[in-house]
Amino acid sequence: MSSATLSQEHADSDLPPSEPWSNIAEETEAASFGMWLFLGTEVLFFGGLFLSYTIARFLYPQDFLEAARHTDIYLGATNTIVLLTSSLTMVVAVRGADLGARRLVWICLAATAALGALFLTIKGFEYWEDIREHLVPGRGFAVQGFGATLFFSLYWIMTSVHAVHLTVGVILIARLAWLMRSEPLRLPDLPVYGLYWHFVDTVWIFLFPLLYLAGRA
Amino acid sequence: MTDAAIGQGMPKAAEEPRSYLDTESFVSWLTTTDHKRIAVLYAITVTFFFLVGSGAMALIRYELTSPQGNILSDEAYNRLFTLHGVVMVWFFLIPSIPAIFGNFLLPLMIGARDVAFPRLNLASWYLNFIGGLFVLYALLAGGVDTGWTFYTPLSTMFANGNVIAAAVGIFITGFSSIATGINFIATVHLLRTEGMTWFRLPLFVWAMYAVSLVFILATPVLAITLVLIMAERLFGLPVFDPANGGDPLLFQHLFWFYSHPAVYIMILPAMGVVSEVITCFARRQVFGYTFMVFSLVAIAIIGFFVWGHHMFVSGMSSYAGVVFSLISFVVAVPSAIKVFNWTATLYRGQISFESPMLYALGFVGLFTVGGLTGLFLAAIPVDVHVHDTYFIIAHFHYIMVGGSVSALYAALHFWWPKVTGKLYPENWARFAAILMFFGFNFTFFPQFLVGYLGMPRRYHVYPPEFQTLQVMSSTGASVLALAYALPIVYLTWTLFNRDWKAPDNPWGATGLEWQTSSPPPKENFRALPAVHSAPYHYHETGEAPDPRAQDEAEQ
After folding, report:
1. Domain extents in chain B
2. Which one-letter DSSP state was computed for residue A136?
3. Can you name the CATH fold of B42-549?
4. Shortest distance, CA B188 to any CA of chain A (angstroms)
5. pLDDT tens digits, B246-291
6. Per-residue pLDDT tens for B325-343?
7. B117, B246, B254 member nearest A34 (Cβ)
8. Which residues pair with B521 in a beta bridge?
């Protein structure tokens, strides 16, 4: 990122960089670089889940398709739309900071956090419904077959690990939205939050077809 | 290597520079973002866990002096070797060289004022510490009896111990490794000083870079595997449980995908240390610098594709076994390159045998034995015979203890003047280094024999014909314990004794870390140095090296 474009647009570029950086452009680059590395670790973290899913589905293809029909595609699809919209508001916030539009930035960040919270709420209702329909492996599990047990184990683990990531994102972005009302448009942080948020969305883009669309073709 | 602006020989400025050790309060240590202080914090916790792990081992070795298994109960024995493994792997060996010496030296060696993310660095220490507390809780609440590998279905269905607490502890400390890895990679990419190109980096920095790659690519897989274990044990969500159609082999694949590269987490930093020490005390440029760099990176990368050699007898496809066997042989090639290059670096060097050099040479010998016996184990027919015997115990202790811990002690003696500004009694140090070498072989060589004769690991009742070798091993362990304790005693003593003040560069070494005062000031360098030549510039290319001025190091 060139420092020239930054300095002409903002008084914020006067913001002192944190140690050990000599200017804010370097710090921004470093923060993004660090987040990309972290997202690399996240790919491997979720990779263990996707590998387990792949192997279990390979072992029990019919059971998986049967089990996947028990998830609630309406809530799942609604949530997909909610999350994709939140990615849009996140992009607008990051771009808004580039343009120096403070109001736009914090409103869009607040919208992102709100949409994330909406996703979690819908997911909560969906979990409640799943429990009522005995879709938790163990006693009284509603679906027959080894594959179904594995499918719903992975369904609960994958969606809850994703939800934990989303919760962290919602809290951090809500806090950032609050700060952005008054603090300088602190450039190093915003693109980093953006990267994280898009990553969590991307994970859902993979989870949705694996858990909801399978068996419904 | 660089401008000798602040090097030795210059008259000292009238006022002493404030060192990073000059402290205002205890709280200033716990809230520090200075990479040097964080390194010291790590040194304290790592030493503590080393003592915990050693204590467990002392009891195990005591038990094994008798074949009847009449000192500890079966459960206590299982819990002790699990504790030993968990603590030594995750809380001693993995953080030892990277988190202590990597943290301290990486910014100094590349001419930076700190790591890229100082607050993240401090957070990594707290994560490590909190993870350690969980493991200590698991220990005090009755221990874990699964072995450090947490194999399913034992760990999820049958084990009675505090598997969850231990798993949470390891999960948390894993993120401390990830934070360190991210920090090191970003630091090396973004904070090298002027003229410090990639192929002028000291090999220790390359080793830290390679180990960071392993940290960030392997550790998350362990984390998710532990999540799956916890889900299965705590919430009854089966993924590995064969009674519900799961595959326990999948656990082993995921676990070893982390845990084999974890072996390289332990050995790569050691290789970096040894490259620094051998060049300094042979007064030689390192032989084949480029090959040394690429072999470090090659070990880190190939190390990701050999995990199946832990599973030759676990019912994995025999075709997969053949492939894993082949790749395991391949990973020996870059390791061998390193051993040959260290040896070639000694050739026509002006060698002097200070204690760091003794430890480093010990490393080369012990690592070679450990590496060569690794080839036995990579060969499937031999592995089937010695699998899960004391042979494998001896093999990996030659790498991890003979190799990594020797290198840790080499680093400790080599950089002690840099970290603390103190020298130490050199004759005691040489004695400890030689004692460690003998104590180590005395402990672990009998285990090759007893393993080859068929004694399985993890049993405390054994046929009486193995007693002689087991008693030898236990005796050796006492010698080894003495050799480990001795430096801790005299090094600590130098801290409280004014007479041992070190010059800035007692070894006449070339690295950037030696171009600032010892101990370094808070900001590392008053003016950031610039680099004009390759590392290890101990002599001109094509000319014979000069002997080191001996009087510098002696009192």
Report:
1. 42-549
2. S
3. Cytochrome C Oxidase; Chain A (1.20.210)
4. 11
5. 999 999 999 999 999 999 999 999 999 999 999 999 999 999 999 9
6. 999 999 999 999 999 999 9
7. B117
8. B19
